[in-house]
Amino acid sequence: MDDNVIANVSRPGTSLRGPAVKETSGPTQGVRPTSQGGRPLSGYVRPGTQSGRPGTMEQAIRTPRTAHTARPVTSASGRFVRLGTASMLSTPDGPFINIARINFSKYASRPTLAKGLFEYIFHHENDVRNALELAALATEACQYSDWWWKVALAKCYFRLGMYRDAEKQLRSALKSDEVIDAYLHLAKVYCRLDQPLAAIEVYTQGLKQFPGETTLLTGIARIYEGLGKMEEGVKYYKDVLKSDNMNVEAIACIATNHFYTDQPEMALKFYRRLLQMGVYNAELFNNLGLCCFYAQQYDMTLTCFMRALSLAEDDVVIGDVWFNIGHVALGICDIKLAYQCFRLALSHNNDHAEAYNNLGVLEMKKNHVEAARSFFQASFVMAPHLYEPHYNFAILADQLGDFQSSYLSAKRAVETFPDHVDSKELLKQLKEHFSLL
């Protein structure tokens, strides 16, 4: 009877949680890399993905305080209104506002001060319970007519995991006054409930009231990209650029789609546009290096990768850059350099499943059977959604005469990526072999 429980098995193309459904017009899983959860990687790190997550251990274990202490009675005349009372007075070594000593009923009746106080408690202190109490009292004080407080209540409910209550507040806010924030948060609630089609419907309703709004168009494009319908998503990203030609996310996602649909020259133009706009980071130079390599502009390839290594600060990013340099080395048939690059990728990111798989292939070419077996096993244990290590392990087991392990690995490869022709052929041969036995 829980309203927040979702179905365990969803219909194809209606869920953001499972692997994306293959689209005939978009890049397949065999071309585009995927994340640890099996979702295709987007061209942009989306804002808001870290909201609500504590940055330190102290914030993680800190329990929001809900106790209230009585404020001392102060003598305030009409000429000297004391705004800095004991509850709102900051000390050099203490917090800016002592939330435990605030009388929320007093400030809830003063909308201008209450809204600023709510933003401080909710965003700065991350104290959702006290923010919810203040929002509830302020909503009651304004006689349930202010849409801002309804959206504030929905934010608190969303942070606490009460998605249906958040939906009710946002629906009520839209009845009072149709604002963009309510549409955006309502679509966010549906995405968290794993109802992407309902979120798209909300975005579409918002576009009827606010035509050409880039945030609404971007939201629809993100959902289509999450569902694996890249062609639909790219259409909306292009609509975003018609209204805002400086939108970094739209440019990056369109460039990613061009790259994985075998158009590296077009992707290179979009990435160069980002560089001209002032985006200067390791990820951009890494993508520029890959585009230059596949566009056969070899003079710029290693320069871009060297610049990416010099700008990278995260070990995960450094591992990805070394992994891509290893692919460039394979393209120029420098096996020793490729082996060293994949080793360097693992030294910076020990969970890089793709590097384990490629090292296994190189070890198999050297006839180092045990090392190849261990690399393949490590790869598909860390990333079960990858089909390459399953197929490679099946080939190795077939060569060694271990037909049972080869059959199981080939079957997993087909289940992971049903359109892989080589896995299907190997599975068919093994079935024929077992039928003869």
UniProtKB/TrEMBL annotation:
Name of the gene encoding the protein in the UniProt record: LOC106063739
Name of one Pfam family that matches: TPR_8
Protein name according to UniProt: Tetratricopeptide repeat protein 8-like isoform X2
TPR repeats: 282-315, 353-386
Gene Ontology CC entries for this record: BBSome; ciliary basal body; non-motile cilium
Region of interest called Disordered, as start-end residue ranges on this chain: 1-56
The keyword Kinase is assigned to this record: no
Family annotation (InterPro entries): BBS8, TPR-like_helical_dom_sf, TPR_rpt
One GO biological process term: non-motile cilium assembly
